[in-house]
Structures are given as structure tokens and as C-alpha cells.
Here is the input.
Amino acid sequence: MTATLVAPPSRAAGRRARARNGRTRRVLYWIATHAAALALGIAFIGPLVFVLLTAVMSDNQTLTDELWPHSWNWGNFGEVFAKSPILLWLRNTMIYALTGTLFTLVSSIPVAYALARFRFPGRRLAFLLVITMMMLPPQVVAVPIYLIWARLDLTGTLLPLILPMLLGDAFSIFLLRQFLLSIPREYTDAARVDGCTDFRTLIRVILPMARPGIAAVALFQFFYCWNDYYGPLLYASTNLDSWTLSVGLASFKALHSVQWNLTMAATLLVMAPVIIVFFFAQKVFIEGVTLTGVKG
Here is the structure.
């Protein structure tokens, strides 16, 4: 009878096993420390994945409980363009969002600069009025403002939504004022010593230093105009040529309520531009928002 000898594991095999165990522990530790962030990420990405998968399904599969497409029907996106004037809606939305953002910045920056830098009687009262306007729901003044625009024969267009932005936006003024307070006064004092006027100080000194705050406000306003449904529905719904993406998408959903693949494809087309904009601008956006929390 012969005895079978088992050779002990080599040192190299032991080192590989310890290395695998170390990597496993590091991965588990990383998952444990980032569990909340992973859960939030899944909660945010999950609906987007569901929309994408539904958008490329066949018409019959969307009415079942199967979540993975049997076939990838990318032609659904082309069918959305064929069955709706989505390019017209996109043009109107871009006009509304870009023009509204530009008008908001032009009108809000000087007001925020005055509230942050000038000392005048009633400054705190003016800032309190700005905060009060932030709390005022737009539905409260919708009827009288609508009557004014109707008498000017401007309903059925986007002008009632764009022109008021030349008068400033309370939320934008508040954010810009808070950001400007974080800029040391020594810069503006030095500019005045060199002979700069207040307007030149604003243009040459303050605006270059306030780029993160201005970018954050611009993104907030752009996203607001892009997603705005109440305003275009109130003023532009009577004219099909003035519809924005939000109003058009609601109409498209009503017309194709049983074709969820087309509805999800249209939804994804509406969402894609703002997701791309935020993806590329998220760094300056976050920087601008985090620097607005200084004490006033």
C-alpha cells in the first residue's frame, strides 16, 4: 500500500490568494462606504434606463411585463419626427430658453450688484421684496397679467414669457447677490482708486470673478425655461406654431397614449439636450451654487 503525498501550496499561490482576499476586502469596503451614493445613483439612473429600454421596444411588447426588448427598434425615434413637428417645438423652446436666459442675466446682474455692493436707504427692504417675490406663486397674478397681454394682442406667442425677463428674476437676483457677497470688497475699492466708475467696475472686475455664479444662474434659468409647461400652455397653447417641447410632448402623449414606445422615445428626445448640457457644465454649476451660501 502506497501513501499519497500532498505537496504544500507554493509561496506564489499563497501570495496570489492573499492578494485576491485583499482586493475583495477593498471592494466590499468601498461598497459599504458608498452604499448611500450607489442607492441614490440607481434611483436616478433607473428611470432613465427604463425610458430608454421602453423607447426601443416594439409596440406590442410595451403592453407586457417584460423589461428587456426582444428587438432594438431604433426606428421609433424616426417615427416620432415623422408623426410630430418636434423640430418646430425644439426651435421654439430654444428661442424661449436662450432669449429668456440672456434677458434674465442682463436684467438681474445689475440689481444683484447694487444689493451686494451699494449702501443706500431701503436696501434691506428691497432685498426683502426680492425674497417675497420668490415666495409668490405665479398663479396668483396669472389672470390680471394674462388680461394685459391679451389687450396687447400678444397671446398665442412666447413674448409674454420672454419680455418680462427684461425686468429681472427674483431667484436669479438672490443667487447672484449671495455670490457677489463672497467677492472681497478690496477688489472694487482698488478699481475705484484707479478711477473706474461703478459700471466699469462691474464689467471689468466683478463679472470675470463672478463667472461660476453667473453660469449657475444661467443654467437654472435655462432649465426652467426648457421644462416650463405652465407658461407656454397659458399663453401659447392657442397657436400651434408657438408650442414648446413641454406642450408638444403632452399633446403627443395624448394622441399616442397606447403607443408607449413612441411616447418614451419622444420623452427621451426632450430630455437628452438638458442632460448633455448639465453633463458638460456640472463642475461650474456646482461651484457656483456652493459659493452662494455666504452670510449677507
Summary: Residues 86-117 form the longest helix (32 residues). The domain at 84-290 is CATH 1.10.3720.10 (MetI-like fold). The mean pLDDT is 83. The chain is about 70% helix and 0% strand.
